[in-house]
Design goal:
With about 190 residues, the chain is an all-alpha fold. It is about 80% helix and about 0% strand. The protein binds fe (ii) ion (FE2).
Length: about 190
């Protein structure tokens, strides 16, 4: 029984947003007058706050990580604190993006968006390739059943279907907007 598949699936949407944001940053750099990233920053920030932090991190921090906290579960006992501090560092970058947006400061926005992208890609790589395989090996089948129920409660409370629909639609909108902008400026 697997308990990290859905989290890895959520990582894929997060990585899609990160890639798209990278393209926005590039277009903003070549076309500063248009400030396309500044215009669309709120959509990216909302995704990272609502989907990545409130929804995805809740499933990790309030459910999965609890099962990895016992001293004999993980062979690397420092790993969980690294993951938690990664999450905090990510929140700091999103606050930095928001501060750039509030001040209409494209440079601050881009700097934080780029730093956040690099940070999050590395963090997701660590979870997908180190933490999650360990979790699959170390959590007992009995605990996996309870953990799945805990995920379900979080998913129901935060309305899984609605949040996925909202941010998959938003992704397509952002992608179309970026492609149109590239076509117009070419
Ligand atoms: Fe994650």
């Amino acid at each position: 029984m697997q308990v990290t598949d859905e989290l890895m699936n959520e990582h894929q949407l997060i990585l899609k947003y990160i890639d798209l944001m990278g393209k926005y940053i590039e277009v903003s750099k070549t076309n500063r007058g248009e400030n396309i990233l500044l215009e669309k920053a709120q959509d990216f920030i909302s995704f990272f706050q609502e989907f990545t932090d409130t929804y995805h991190h809740a499933k990790e921090e309030d459910a999965l990580f609890k099962y990895l906290q016992a001293p004999d579960v993980l062979s690397d006992c420092n790993l969980l604190s690294v993951m938690l501090s990664d999450h905090d560092k990510g929140r700091m970058h999103v606050r930095g993006m928001n501060s750039g947006l509030v001040k209409n400061n494209l440079e601050t926005l881009c700097k934080n968006a780029y730093a956040y992208s690099q940070h999050l890609k590395q963090h997701i790589f660590k979870e997908d390739n180190v933490l999650f395989p360990m979790a699959e090996n170390e959590i007992s089948d009995e605990d996996k059943i309870t953990l799945k129920n805990e995920y379900k409660q979080i998913e129901e409370k935060l309305d899984k279907r609605a949040i996925w629909n909202k941010y998959e639609e938003k992704y397509s909108e952002l992608e179309n907007c970026l492609n149109n902008k590239i076509l117009v400026t070419e």
